[in-house]
Amino acid sequence: MSDLSVAHRAALAQLIENVPDRTLRQLALAVAGMPGDKARTLESMLAQAGIDRVRRTHALTAIAPMFRPRPDGVAATTFPAPVLARLWKAASANQGDILAYLDPDEYGERDAYRVAAVCTRLYAAGAAAVRDQAEAVWPAGLASADRDAGLIALARVCDLGGLVHRALPSLGAWTGRPDGDQVAELRLLLRDAAAISPDGAQELLDILFAHLDDAPMILRLVTHSSSAAGRDSFLSGSELAVFVDRLIDAAEDRARSVDAWKAGQPVETLHHALTWIATFLTESDATVQIHPDTAWGKRIRQVRLGVSKTVGALLGRVQRAVTPALPMTRVQTAGRMTREMPQLDIPLDPATTASAGDALDLVRILRAPAGVFGCEAQRIGLVTDLTTQVFNYADLALEEINAGDVTDEALAIRRVELAADFLDRLEAVDQARTMRRRVAVAGHSHQAHSPRAA
Q1: 72: which residues sit within 8 A by CB, 6+ positions away?
Q2: Which DSSP state fits 449?
Q3: Distance CA 40, CA 62 (A)
Q4: In 76-179, where does DSSP find H-type helix?
Q5: What are the residues whose beta carbons fall under 8 Å from the beta carbon of 418, sequence distance 6 or more?
Q6: Residues 93-115: pLDDT tens digits?
Q7: How far apart are CA 25 and CA 324, in angstroms?
Q8: Which of 38, 123, 350, 397 could cysteine-pair with 342, CB 3.0–4.6 Å?
Q9: Whether the predicted pLDDT of 291 surpasses 50
Q10: Residues of the chain with pLDDT > 70: what percent?
Q11: Per-residue pLDDT tens for 176-216?
């Protein structure tokens, strides 16, 4: 069988370049089982493409996160995803003599110093390609309104790629509790970045920002950047102010979503927004000394007060959502005496039950962020009251069931099981377990004893 023609090779190379990694692996497995010279040629092309992608992933790790939007939606410097592969192709062209150094040895290890040197060279080649071969790296077909500005930013990112490659292993320490030497290392790195570009410090932090899943953690890097960076008066006038602005903008967006949240909507959406805002407020309080009378301070205060008011209102509506799911009625006991007892003959209403469950889930998800918004005392009081209410309801219901005073025992037991579920949602695990043990034997105590028991 004849081999593939040059035209076929070119077409296949173009096709292989555009398929996702998973598809590439599936193709390689499929072609491996095919007979013939053409299949072997294609198999070799797929294998080389796989090696090339592994090298690209390892070499461009420092800047790769900038080629996708941040999952949390916080504003950041990003580039179109297809540009990454084009950048690699341009940067690695004519670099065949060094690319093999990116591969692991027989033990799966890489020489860190040699890899760092190779990556620095490749980033330099990438920066040159962005400046000299812009159409090849970022064609007009991928143009956005800010393509020209994006090309300038991408070239500067590549200029700093080698520094970031060396910095990534220390990122965890810098966002944790760095010691004096680690802080000095960060400041030296930022000084080196500033020597490469006038805005190098900001641009380097922008790249590191792309590697942080928790956006507020960037405040720790910002405050470690200099001894004065933690002061509002200094930071607001520096090039690093953009990171605080981004975070406050994101907090305000989330505060609006919290205010717009309605019962019945996914509670996890509210949870994510509140947790993010709480993390930001905690980080800003601990790192950046923002005066309450400054523009930043007023915006942050508005976020805190607005969310606190909304959370307080949401907690205030929980009791009204739970009570209808646990209906009570007043019954006469002796003489004119009456007492409140569970109304166990009412069929379960799915809408009422779901509303009560969502309300209790809300109480649970607020356990972590409530303290930040000054609502923890309200939440704890509510949890205490609800736990008592639900447990007493189930206890009285079991009393009626065991006394044989219910017309539909199965329905009554389902109501007790619902109460146990509510206790679980309130994280009253022991009380819920107790109720489930008791309901497992409920309804038998009023039955006649067997002759042997008598």
Answers
A1: 213, 215, 250, 276
A2: P
A3: 35
A4: 82-92, 96-99, 112-132, 134-137, 147-159, 161-167, 171-174
A5: 325, 348, 353
A6: 888 888 888 887 766 678 888 89
A7: 56
A8: 397
A9: yes
A10: 82
A11: 999 999 999 999 999 999 999 889 999 999 999 999 999 99
Answer for the pair 428, 384: CB distance below 8 angstroms, yes or no.
no
Element (H, E) at 236: none
pTM assigned to the model: 0.83
Strands 338-342, 328-332: pairing is antiparallel
Amino acid at 81: A
Q: Count the helix, strand and coil residues of the chain and give each as a percent rounded to the nearest 5.
A: 70, 5, 30
Residue 198 identity (one-letter amino acid): P
Query: Hunting for tokens 């199965």 — which residue is that?
Result: 410
Upper half-sphere CA count for residue 75 (Cβ side, 13 Å): 12
Q: Widest CA span of the chain, in angstroms?
A: 105
Element (H, E) at 342: strand 338-342
Structure-token match 């809408």, residue found: 351
Structure tokens given for 442: 């409920």
pLDDT tops 80 at residue 320:
yes
Q: Which of 268, 347, 263 is nearest to 310 (CA)?
A: 263
Distance of CA 173 to the CA centre of its chain: 20
What band does 292 get if pLDDT is binned at 50, 70 and 90? confident
Specify the pLDDT at position 451.
38
What local confidence, expressed as pLDDT, does residue 37 receive?
62
Distance (Å, rounded) from C-alpha 168 to C-alpha 351?
51
Least Cα distance to 246 among 66, 70, 74, 78 occurs for 74
Contact 274/258 with Cβ under 8 angstroms?
Answer: yes
Per-residue pLDDT tens over the stretch 137-174: 999 887 677 888 999 999 999 999 999 999 999 999 99
Cβ within 8 Å of residue 255, ≥6 positions away:
273, 277, 303, 306, 307
Which band of pLDDT confidence, cut at 50, 70 and 90, is reported for residue 231?
low
Q: Which of 309, 414, 417, 421 is nearest to 360 (CA)?
A: 421
What does the alpha-carbon distance between residue 265 and residue 315 come to, in Å, rounded to a whole number? 16
How far is Cα 6 from Cα 65, in angstroms, rounded to an integer?
35
Looking at residue 454, its pLDDT comes to 33
- d(C-alpha 411, C-alpha 407), whole Å: 9
